[in-house]
Every structure is written in structure tokens, then in C-alpha cells.
Fold these 4 entries.
Entry 1:
Amino acid sequence: MRALSAVNLLEVWERGVEQHSVDRALTVLAACFGQTREELAQATVGERDAGLLQVHESLFGNELQAFAECPACSEHLEYGLPVRSLIFEPSNLEREFNAAIGDLTLRLRLPNSLDLAALRDCAEIESAGRILLARCIVEARSGDTPVPLSSLSDVAVEEAEQRLASADARAEILIDLTCSACHHSWRTILDIESFLWTKWSALARRLMREVHTLATAYHWREADILAMSARRREFYLDMVM
């Protein structure tokens, strides 16, 4: 993974701030791993999110601090997770595989960022799920006879969704939580892209405030301030304050 300078961090923030979350994730990964957006877009959702977790660990450390609201009593909870525990390499990950469901044989493909991008205008979860599944079923056959996707039964559709979900366990990170106030237990999904971008944006704004303070005090150029190490900027900021 590349070590990003303060200039790099701000450049990524400036590009990503107006982007859809799917595109923004690719912008972050391209900057950190040096691959093209086209290459990264072909990675499965689980592979993408594992990369984003690695970025978090590199920039913000191994401790992932998050907040949640209890669905039972609305208590606000703070919890921490070691990022390293969420990054794992699945054994025998296949991006395409066959699944036998009754008398059907489905050729399934794990979803990637291109599939997520196709859902960006879907307002309903159910319609988004149908579109995603249609993209990820490469072929359906009964014996040697092709089967139209529109004729698949609800049971076959549900089973195909489950097979896809279990084939890439990293694509949906579920966190078990228990409310300290009412002891209600529930599961929440960790949206690592949104979580990471919130912290990235906070870091970018902090850097720009530092530039503003030092430029106002010393009349230095932005490029010169950002070229300093964080320790040197902090030293000068302490003198200004």
C-alpha cells in the first residue's frame, strides 16, 4: 500500500467529495493501492471492503471506533472493534461458480463495484435486489435447456441470493451489539466506505485549517505547509496558538 502525503490526502478528498459512494471507494483504493479504477471495479464487494479496511488501518490505526443507536430505546452507544479482526482472506474464493438448486443449475458471479453502480438510482431495496441478482446470474439451465431468469421461482431466487451472500463473507460485515441501557441485542451492518470517508473528510478539513492558520500567521504557501511533516506543522501551530 502506498504511503499518502498530506497533498495526496487532500487531492483524494477533493475528487471524492462530489462522487457517489461507489465511485468514491474506487478513488480511495486507486490512490492507496496504485491500481487502475477499471481493475479495482472488477474486485468483489468483499475484496473492495477488505481493501478499505486496510486503508483505515494504515491511516487511522487498528481501532475502529463507531456509534450506534439502540432500536429499542434509542440509547446512543459507542463501540470499538479491532480492524485486523475484520480483515481476513477467505479460502477458495471463486468469482464465478455453479449452484445446483433443485433441477436448476445456476452460474453465479459475485457482485462487484460495477454492479453496485447499476443500483445507484434504485429507491427501493427490493428492486435493487432484483437488479443485482439479474446481473449476477450469468446463466440458468435445467439440464441442457436454458431457463429465462424471469421464470425462476421465488424459492430459486432466494436460494441464489443466499449462495451469493455466503460465497463472499466479507461483502456484508455484521456487528453484534447489546444495549447497555435496556440490554436489547441486535445486529448492524458496518458500512466501511461511509465510515472511512467520514474520517478521511475530517482529516482533510483539519489539514486545511492548519494551512489556513499557518498561512495567515507566516504567509507561507499551501504547498510549503503541506510539504512539512505533521510534527513540524504541529510545532509551528503550537507557537501560533
Entry 2:
Amino acid sequence: MIDEEGKKPLWSYVKSKRKDVVGISSLKHNGQLISHNEKQANTLNDQFSSVFTREDDGPLPSVGTSPFPDAPDITVSPAGVRKLLQQLQPHEEMGPDQIPTKLLKVGAQELTPGITLLFQASIDQHTIPQEWKKANYLPSKKEIEQTG
């Protein structure tokens, strides 16, 4: 038999009886039973701190020469940049720079030298501009439905 909400009464009853108590059970420390949350947290912290060693925060020791060879320099090719620009989907959303994807695709030939220069400079200088770290994120319909 099914109730108004579409749940089977037997399983609702079983589920209600299986609820666990939230929290940490009482702890015994130095012969005393501790049930207060803050005291339990401090007791657990003391226990964990006692079994781990504190690492020296000083400089790391030198390990000599690396067994791994140096990675070769990375070169950004204009042909690769142009190919990626031409593969953009015009219907995709704009990034934080608000440059329409269609403009990047259509202007790939003209934009390639400048974009190649920017990417190569970023690699050579070992830095990523803050603006490049930003992104626009739009949740999918499925994600919205799952949180709603």
C-alpha cells in the first residue's frame, strides 16, 4: 500500500528507526568522560598533535642534481593558435573579456600574431595574467535542477 506522498509506509517506518545520532560519542580522557563538543575537539586535537611531529619550516636541504632532465622550451606556433581560434564554436558564451567567440573565429587570421605573442610572453616570463585566470561559469539545467 502507498500513502499520499508516494512512499511505502513500511520503508518510511524503517528509515525513521535507523536515524543515527549526529556528533561524536563521549570520549574518555584521563579517566574522565567528556561529552561537551568543545572539550571533545580539544581532546582530539591534543591526541593528534601528540602523535605527529612538527616539521622544520626552514629552507629545504639541497638534493644535488636532479635525476630528471630539463623540460624543453615551449614554443607557441602561430599555426597552432590559428587552428584553435578557427575551431571555436560561434554559439559559445563570451569569456570575462566580453569578446564574442564568433569575432575570434572570424578574425582568426588577423588575431593570430598578437595572440601568439601574448601566449609566448606568458610562457617565457613564467606568469599568467590575473585576467586570464577568470572565467564565466553558467550552471547547466541539470545542475540547477539538482540544487533546487
Entry 3:
Amino acid sequence: MSRDNEPVKLSGVVEPGATPAPWPLFVNKGPSGRVDVAREGNAVRATTRGVAEFTLLLSPGAFDFARPITVVADGRTVFDGRVERSVATLMKWAARDNDRTLLFGAEIHVTLAP
């Protein structure tokens, strides 16, 4: 239906094989990694595959910055302590994401042992 609620009439001929072969939307040029994260209170559990390091972004709406935060990656505690609110982190990610609903007040850089 058109905007005027009138039926839209199309004309033409469909020729089988006339459409080009599909191509992938994203070309995978190398190996990829994955990080699955689950949060319970101020504790974060991360399960990784093919990742040497990652950055965990913390929102003051989801985490209590007055209490310690624990990050366990692949069964090993990689961070246990308090984080400070950072205006620089807030501005960096706000500029990158350009989304006012994604506000991150701190970040934790995690490096995994080989």
C-alpha cells in the first residue's frame, strides 16, 4: 500500500539467474574472538575464546562504585578492587558511541595470561 492507501502496481519481468550471486556482508579476514559476560551485583564473570585482552566498561547505573568490583575471567580473578569515576572515560566513550543512553563512568582493562 502507498501512503495514500492506494495499491502499488509494479510491472516488469523477472528473469531467473539475472540477479547476481549473493556476497558476504562482512568479510572475515582473520580469526575472531568472543567474550561472554554475566553480572551479579558488583561481580562480573567473563568467559572468553580467542581473546588476549578486553576492556570492561562500567556504568554507574549498574555498578555501585562505592563497593569493590570483582572480575573473574575464565575462572581466574583478574580484578578485585574499587574503581574511581572518570570524566575522561565518560567523555571518551560518549564521543565514540554518540548515544546518551550508554554512559560509562569507569573502565577496567583486563589482560589474560597466555
Entry 4:
Amino acid sequence: MHEIPADLTVRSDPYQLLRSIAQDGPVQQVLLRGRKIWLVTGYDEVTSGLSSQDLSNAPPLADTEGQSGEREGNLLFESLLATDPPVHTRLRRSVSDVFTARRIERLKPRIEQITDALLDTIAPKGHADLMAEFAIPLPITVICELLGIPDADRDAFRRWSIALVMPPADPATLALAATAQADLARFFAELIARKRTEPGDDLLTALALSSGDDRLSDRELQAMAILLVLAGHETTANLIGTGALMLLRHPDQLAAIRDDPALLPGAVEELARYAGPISLGVARFTRREVELGGHLIPAGEMVMFALAAASRDPGRYDRPDELDVNRAQRPHLAFGHGIHYCMGAPLARVEAAIALGGLVRRLPQLLLAIPEGRLVWRTASTRGLSELPVTFAH
């Protein structure tokens, strides 16, 4: 039986180990932190499992022990992250129109302005940490504007947001994340009340003033806002940062995008497939006995879907371990599948395409500033770089 090492998600190349595990079958039992779980690595098996109503997104009480805060006090257990239909359906429906392709298209000019403003600061220097100075502040600024966070509150909001997604390395970090969640909950409780008396043209106002069957309680509103902070900046920041690193690793692909910017939307899809923000996967829990990949999985078992492995399944893709921004096979699982498919994927795609296009256009002769072996990978809910130091012509 394979054992998933504790450092898998912070390795520079977790794909080699996932590939070796997958050779023994697309569905198998493995050890994860001393516990037997089921790991699913095949593309077809992942799509089947994530579509199954026999697997729950809500962790049993036994699987939440030891997390920061009590389950009853953790708003994320009441969010889209940990609910099933019909609750999940109602929560998702309440914000689904915000992330339509038409609405995201209207956001593009503003995302371009934010990108150019960040690059205006970076470009004259000839060097930068692309994570701290670009990949992280871009999506945080976008989510602030989307939610209607007042300018005066944004510095505190950014500190809480970053603390919330820090890797759970030790008890102090866990405590910091719990405090950040509590601070964000209080902040959003006050902001929601303010939006009802001083409405703005933003998502939080729309949710706070909504009525009908899909209306969210104040607690559900707070949970939704905190989830949007998590999903709205961490995943996108890591897609941009890791995507930039992959292009630096593959200068021929970087050159192809520079020569033909029309490749950018497809390049973002390929970068998400090749090195997306989710490395190990997402967990589900069997409600009853489930057949998956030729195995009967008993009720009450944890099933981990390795999205990264599925997006490099050789049964699905030609040359799965090669980065090819001209790849014709676009579908991948980096944003999940089924009813829990990432709601913010359209926004993440647009932000990543604009951000990477700006880097390629504005920072010529872009190079990694330190040996790649010195790069530090971190993981909280998604996998990304602690920093990405680069140099460029100026």
C-alpha cells in the first residue's frame, strides 16, 4: 500500500510520485497521515466520482476534529465548501449570476487597469517578487471591488485574507488563521449591516438586499463572503504565480505567447492542466457503499480525488507531462467537476490571462532570479509559491 508523504504538496514536482501511484490503478487505498483512504487518480474515475450523489462534500464530525476552532464556530462548514444539496444548491444559486461569462466580460477593463497599475510600479525596477508584488495583490484587489470593500478597510482586509490561507505549519499558524477568520466574520457582519443602509453597486449589497427563497441568512452571508475571499484570491494568485514559473521553465512556450497573444486563453487552460493550484485533490465521503474504478468502497470512507493526477492521465492526454500552449485537448479538472465545480473559474481564467499577458508584454527578458531549487512551495487549501523573484529588462 502506497503512503502519501506529508511533504507531497510542497515538493517541486509532486507529479512523479502521483504518476507512480497511478500505475497501480486509478482507484486504490493509500495511507495519508496514518489513515487509510481511497485515492482516485484516473480522469474518468475522478469525473465519475465527483458526479456521484453517493459521495458527500460534508465531512463527518470525526473528520473535523483538530481543526482550528470548534466546528460550530467555523463558518466555512456552512459554506459551499462543506454542504450538499439542497443547501448547497440554494447557496450556489444565490451568487451564480455574478460569475456568468457576460458579467466577467464587463469586469475585464477594470482587471486590465489593476494589472497595468501593478506593472507600472514593478517595471522600472528591473526585479520583483512576482508573488508579493503582482500575483497576490491583483486578485485581492479584484475581490475587494467585487464585494464592495471600502478603500479604508482594504489594508486590514488584505492582512486577514493572507493570514487565512497561510499553510497550517504549526499551532501558531493555525491560531492566526482562526483569528483571521473571526476578524473577517466580524468585519463582514458590520459591512453587511452597512450595505443595507448605504447600498453600493457590488455583490455584497446585492446579497444583503436580496429576497425570496434564495435569500441568505446573515451567518450564511458571512460564510459566503469568507469563501469568496478564499476562492477569489488564493486559487487565482497561485494560478498566476505558478503559471509564470512554468513559462519561465519553458522559454519556448513563453516565446510562443509573446509572438501570438491570441494563445493566452488556451495557454491558461494548459497551465491549469499542467500545474494547477490543486495538487493532491479534494475529499469526499461515501454515504453508502459505492462502486468506483472496479472497487467497492464502503460507507463512511474518505475518498481523495487527485485532480493533478487526473489532469495528467495518459489515458486522456497525449504527452501529458509536456507543457504545450497549442494543445488541442483543452478539458481538464483543475477547477473540479460536477455540482461543486469552482464557481469562480471564469473570473480566475480572465484574471490569469490578463495577468500573464501583461507580464509577457511589459517585462521583457523575464528570468528567474534564484536557482529553482531554492524556491519554496507552500500549501493551504491550494498549492503555490512563497515567492517568485525575477529579473527583467527595464
